[in-house]
Structure formats: C-alpha cells, structure tokens
Amino acid sequence: MRAWGVAALAVLLGACSSGVVPSRPGSASSAPRPVPASPSAPVRQPVAATPLAPVSAPAAPASATTAAAAGLVAGPAIERLPITMAGAARALTAFRTSCPTLVRRTDASGLTRGEDWRAACDAAKTAQDREAAQFFATHFEAVQVADGKAFATGYYEPEIAGSRTRRTGYEVPIYGRPSDLVDVDLGKFSDAMKGKSIRGRVEGTNFVPYHERTAIEQGALQGRGLEIAWASDPVELFFLQIQGSGRLRLPDGGVMRIGYASQNGRDYTGIGRLMLDRGVLKPGQASMQGIMAYLRENPAQGRDIMRENKSYVFFRELTGPGPLGAMGHPVSARGSVATDPKFVPLGAPVFLSMDRQDANGLWVAQDTGGAIKGTNRFDTFWGAGDEARAVAGGMAARGTAWLLLPKGTLARLTGN
C-alpha cells in the first residue's frame, strides 16, 4: 500500500525513476554525496483532451461517507465509451490479478458483495486481450457516483541513492515499523465507531499519539535497531515516503526495493498547497520538480516545511513482485489507480474521461493513499523510470469518472 501518492505534488503535496534523484550540493552533511545516475526528469507537458460530460446529478452530500450514501446514477453504455484495445487489455490483466481478493473482501463502499464479482472473475480467467473491451461490455455496467466530477493525479515508483548500512554519504535512516506502534480498531469498542481506527503507543497507563516527523528526525527512534537502510538525502526520502514504495540504488550498483509497512498515525499535511498558500511558490511552480528545487535551494526552510507534515512512513524490504497495492497485489503501470475505498470498491474497473489525454481510459482500483479521499478522487500509477516520473510529477487532470460494476448492481442498490 502506498502512503500518499504524488497527488500532482503540485497541488496535493499539499502522493521509480531509473535515475537517482539528484542531491543538492552543499547540503547538511559535508561528506561527498553519491553521484546521481541521471538528471531529474522535467515535468511532461500535458496533451489536452475534452472529457465526456457526466450524467446530470447533484454533488455528494457533505454527510456522505460512502459511495452508497453519495448518490448513484446510471452511466453510459460501456460500448459507447472510447475504450482502446491496449487500455482494455491492461485493465483486464489488472482486474484478473485482483480477482482472488475481490471475491472475498468486504466492500467498504457499500456497493458490492464478494459474490457479485464471481461471474466476471470466472470469465476473466479465459478472456483474451483482443476480447478485453467486449469482456467489460458483457459483464459490467457504468455507474456514476454523485455528480461524477473527477480529479486525477499521478504516482510512480521512485529510485533514490541508498545503502543497507550507514556509511559516508548515506546517513539518513530508513525505519522499519516500530514494535510499539499500535493499531486500534475503534469499532471493537463502539458500533458508532465501526470502520474507524487510530494508531499510537502506550505510555504508562495511557494511549498517546505516536511520535511525529520532527521527533523521529531528531532521534526518537535511535538505538532501537529499526534502520532497514540509509538514504543519502532527506528530501529524497521525504518524497519516497509520499510515494509509499521505491527502489534504493546501492553503492555497488545493486537495487533494494522497499515498500510501505505502516505510518505513524499522524495527519498528512500537503506541503505543495501550504507553499502555494504562503507565496513560497507561485502557481505553475508547484510541480514535484519545482517543490524539490525549492527544498534543496533553501535547506533550513525546506526542513521546517517538510516537518509541518507530521505524518511519517515506515518501510519493509520487498523481495517479490511489486510495488504492492493496498489489495496485496502488484500494481501495474497505466493499469492501476489509487482511490478512496469508501467510494470505489478495491478491485473495481474505473473509466476516466479527463481534460488530459494521458489519464483517459480504463483503470483498476488496486491501491489507496492518505491524500486520496472522497468521491471521484483518483491517483494514477505510471510505473518506474524517467518517463513515469515526468508524467506523474505533473499530473493534474479534471473530468468525469464512471465505475464499472457487475451488471445488476445499480438495480439492486436502488430498487429499480
């Protein structure tokens, strides 16, 4: 599971590159820094597109906490959606991967039951890529949540300079999950708190919030043997935490892959929005690349700004396929999207029609993110490499979204 996602880092930092993110010369440590493998990829300029209009419907009520409560209307016939053969094939592969979990899990959105997906999942086992578009048209119906107005950003799998051991130039700890970090399911204490949870630690006889980012960076976890690796640059690690998983390029040229293990339970603060609101960055400068440039050029102010995001992510080493999404399955470039599971069933296909061509097409909800909340909010996954970083770093698209749910779902939910 990802922590947050680039969230266009332009707006939401306010969520892997094949080249190491470059370190800023003359930063905190006077020790020589590892040499980056390639320069930072520039933001990719978007190709404009005209999104399909949503079905006329009211916005979700402020009180709505699930898709079922937000309001549902029928979308267009799937045959009429501009689904490409390649996009349908990618979505079919991602959907097939999700099926073993999809038919068993409880849907937090209130829209589907595990058995609802069984027919489509059974058919997906033998469906061919060339038949993918027809597969979705046969087994699914398009459903619009509330007014259907969508916002999409992007994330990727970054690569940064790192080491398995502390050494000159690698002095920023990357922590595994602490043993005193406790998850509490509040629903076990009160039916009114069902579906809610908190994280913290026990201090004497009290349950208190876990250490925030500043305390951790100042040494709250030192001496406990929690370091799974060491990064060369705190800015690199901060952005890797936002992505939730990534690659460490080791001094010998090898790669160590790490993924999300947990988070300290503190609220996430998007520094991109914060920097825009304060006038530190001007509109148009708040891409991931622009934010990183400011943090490196202004190390003291940059450190303080990063610490205003009290959330802190813990990692584990990944040894199998990955990166892994919230369903526990590998996410796929241009096939997987992160969503709020209260508004999109994890494992469900989604069709996005946006004002940016890159984001258009079929995706499958296989991940979540701390900044990805509410109706019709999506974070598209672009894989690893310079191209992925360039697209994800500047992704901010608006348009229309329709969920693809098993046929008959809307009639069952609405009684029509």
Automatic annotation (TrEMBL):
Residues 21-32 have a biased composition (Low complexity). Its EC number is 4.2.2.n1. The keyword Protease does not apply. Pfam families: 3D (PF06725), MltA (PF03562). It catalyses: Exolytic cleavage of the (1->4)-beta-glycosidic linkage between N-acetylmuramic acid (MurNAc) and N-acetylglucosamine (GlcNAc) residues in peptidoglycan, from either the reducing or the non-reducing ends of the peptidoglycan chains, with concomitant formation of a 1,6-anhydrobond in the MurNAc residue. SUPFAM superfamilies: Barwin-like endoglucanases. GO terms for molecular function: hydrolase activity, hydrolyzing O-glycosyl compounds; peptidoglycan lytic transglycosylase activity. Residues 159-316 form the Lytic transglycosylase MltA domain. One of its GO terms (biological process) is peptidoglycan turnover. Residues 1-23 form the signal peptide. SMART domains: MltA. GO terms for cellular component: outer membrane. PROSITE patterns: PROKAR_LIPOPROTEIN (PS51257). This is peptidoglycan lytic exotransglycosylase. It comes from Sphingomonas tagetis.
